[in-house]
Write a structure and sequence with these properties.
mainly alpha, 2 helices, 68% helix, rod-shaped, binds zinc ion
Length: 136
Amino acid sequence: MGGGDVSENSHRCAAIKNNGARCERVISASSRFCFAHDPLTQERRQASLEKANKAREVRQRNRVDEIVLLRERVMEFVEDVIKKRMNPGTASAVNQFLVTWLRLVDAENSQLELDKYTEKLLAVERHLDDRKRSTS
Ligand SMILES: [Zn+2]
């Protein structure tokens, strides 16, 4: 057992690799696994991923609420113009703002979508990295 640079203050990682062999990485005596095999690392990664997902869900839910509210507001504006409670000039200005708002929402959605796929890509890359490290 042991050998090489394994001293009293270090030992080998306890993980068994996918190919059935023991991980060869030498680690400090106080830890049981190397960074790649530490369940805590995995947990932390999972936790931060879940946190990011939750934040996105909340943002999307707020956005949906906002859109529903605004849709009702737009119908009120239409009603106001038809019933001549709002002059067409004001309605036209309001409409311009709404168009701008919609463009901003579109831009934000595109960015959110991009962030989502970037995160997924990074997770896949990390996973492949771990596999490469744990089988080499
Ligand atoms: Zn290991």
